[in-house]
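Side project, low priority. Logging it here so it doesn't get lost.
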Amino acid sequence: MSLVEKTVRNASSFPSLLMNLDSSLGLEPVCRIDKSQADFFRLLFWSKHKAMKKSKSYVGIDISKQSFDVAIENVQGKYIHYKLSNDPAGFTKLLKLLDEESICVMEASGPYYLKLAFFLSEKGISCSVINPLIIRRFSQMRMMRAKTDKKDAMLIAEYGKAEHPEYWQPEAGYVLELKQMQAYIEQLNKSRTGLIRQQEAFNQNPVKCLSVYQSMESMIKQLEGEIKLIEAKMESSVKQYHHKLFEQLKSIPGLGKKTAMQLIVLSGGFSKFETAKQLSSYVGLSPRIFESGTSVKAKVKICKMGMSRVRAMLYLCSWTAKKCNKACRELYERLLAKGKAKKLALIAVANKLLKQAFAIATKNEFYLKIN
């Protein structure tokens, strides 16, 4: 090891490093620092270093229905593992393990993370909620072979340290209620569709069971009544909190009230996204280009990594928009003139509708029809 290298390694602070280097090179010191000043600089560097290390303490949480695993890094850089119950008692125990600088990172594991995330937010603890697919890809990138709850908690903590994800913000109570109503309506529609298909299959049978037929008719009517009731409550709630925005979205030719409600619910009143591209990507209408060199050049498709229900509704709206929405009609006709497929043109119209909705919401104005 050279003299300069030894000098750098032995220096306890930046000022002492300068003085040691000058003396090791046979030069006069650039500045004279007495012992008290050197101690001051050493304390300053030590306190800043300690503050930097303490400023971000990422805690990995792998959560499931009944319990969650916690990985907390100690001062030696090793992880300490805890297994707690997914209930208020477990949340309280976790709170005792954290400090004000802790940042909890967890996966969006179905609905099981919500209670813990809300609890931490109420207690002033920052937390980040990550898409499980991102954590899976991060694990694959690190060539992880073992998969256990303990390992996953450590991996989530490592992801937080490496990527510094954005903090999770709790949604308003009415937004969660709207999402529950929407999920319930989708389930009712699936049940209604299943009964109608089963009824059609029974109608092809030469022998018909009258009691079964009457029961199915009754169930279908009951489901349709429940769907109308929940949709009316959902519309009433949207009008209560986003009345003007709801009317503005309905002013777009081709966009119905059901689609307008869906867009308001999934975007939190268009407050979650900064650009129309982010919203398009979230819905799953953004194009996916797959090319490599000269041999790989796949057909461009939409990514479909997003809200399939909203995407389907926008596609249905595109059939009307290509006739009555001037901008959408021009886009549709221009793509057809270039030889594009009709389905591709309709998807482009759906994306156009989404961009129009974002523009209307962010500019806080109604759709202006131009003949």
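Brief comment: The domain at 56-163 is CATH 3.30.420.40 (Nucleotidyltransferase; domain 5).
Revisit when time allows.
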